[in-house]
């Protein structure tokens, strides 16, 4: 898509709530320069406008859709989970999560971001490069790296040669599997099971399964609040599948992290077990033990 203006972006398919973000001269997308200071009507009223804020009009357009977190997805299939906080200026994205999204997509001063509400807690982010008064959409991962929210080890190649290989992880936020765990397949109880390597971050309340992992293996999940299990070396822990905006995750993760003394930066091999094609259990392997 080319020849678009910011106005056109906001007018296209207005049935879906949307908003745009861009930079003023001298700003960068990093949260350390997210604050712009303006004087309104030459009065003493000062307003701090943060790029991490989600506009209140957008939030009101979907009551209850954005409470604690949001999932961003981009055209080439990668996704990021960002946690939200409520401040006096409104609802905003946590600094660490926002900076990871910015870094993974190599956002620059000429970029324009279009945020489109797709479903509960789910936002599609379209990235455009600005050239004079026109915009051109970016539809493939940045050349410097192909970011992803979870680490995925590619399956043996069975697709036709012209089919692109799975995206590789960037070194910012999501590292390649061999950088986290040497040969993660050795830990699997069943080599044919789908799996991913989870690197622990600050937020550990749920074990999130990214869209990239879901699409790579064609995963299916039970309905919201359906039972599932964590399988550990000496125990089996019951939990529930949660579905938010089409994204699957499992609760009870925080309790497991505390019990097994997992800390930020640790890697866990998550082996997914299915019954009738539906993910019913996650077998956890701790390579550091």
From TrEMBL:
Residues annotated as domain TF-B3: 37-131
Location of this chain's protein in the cell: Nucleus
SMART domains: B3 (SM01019)
InterPro entries named among the record's database cross-references: B3_DNA-bd, DNA-bd_pseudobarrel_sf, Plant_B3_domain
Domain of life: Eukaryota
First-listed, main subcellular location of the protein, grouped into a coarse class: nucleus
Keywords linked to the UniProt accession: DNA-binding, Nucleus, Transcription, Transcription regulation
Chain segments carrying region Disordered: 152-175
Protein name per Swiss-Prot or TrEMBL: TF-B3 domain-containing protein
Native source species: Brassica cretica
């Amino acid at each position: 898509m080319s020849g678009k203006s910011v106005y056109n972006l906001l007018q296209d398919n207005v049935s879906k709530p949307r908003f745009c973000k861009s930079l003023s001269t001298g700003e960068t997308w990093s949260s350390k320069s997210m604050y712009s200071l303006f004087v309104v009507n030459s009065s003493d009223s000062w307003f701090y406008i943060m790029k991490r804020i989600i506009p209140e009009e957008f939030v009101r357009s979907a009551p209850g859709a954005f409470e604690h977190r949001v999932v961003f997805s981009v055209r080439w299939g990668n996704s990021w989970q960002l946690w939200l906080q409520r401040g006096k200026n409104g609802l905003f994205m946590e600094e660490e999560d926002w900076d990871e999204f910015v870094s993974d997509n190599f956002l620059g001063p000429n970029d324009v971001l279009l945020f489109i509400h797709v479903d509960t807690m789910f936002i599609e982010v379209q990235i455009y490069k600005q050239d004079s008064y026109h915009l051109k959409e970016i539809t493939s991962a940045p050349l410097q790296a192909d970011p992803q929210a979870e680490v995925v080890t590619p399956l043996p190649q069975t697709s036709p040669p012209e089919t692109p290989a799975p995206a590789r992880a960037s070194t910012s936020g999501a590292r390649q599997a061999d950088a986290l765990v040497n040969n993660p397949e050795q830990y699997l109880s069943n080599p044919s099971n789908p799996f991913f390597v989870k690197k622990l971050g600050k937020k550990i309340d749920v074990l999130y399964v990214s869209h990239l992992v879901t699409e790579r293996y064609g995963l299916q999940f039970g309905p919201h609040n359906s039972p599932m299990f964590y399988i550990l070396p000496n125990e089996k822990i019951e939990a529930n599948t949660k579905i938010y905006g089409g994204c699957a995750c499992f609760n009870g993760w925080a309790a497991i992290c505390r019990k097994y003394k997992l800390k930020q930066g640790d890697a866990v091999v998550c082996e997914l077990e299915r019954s009738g094609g539906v993910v019913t259990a996650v077998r956890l392997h701790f390579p550091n033990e």
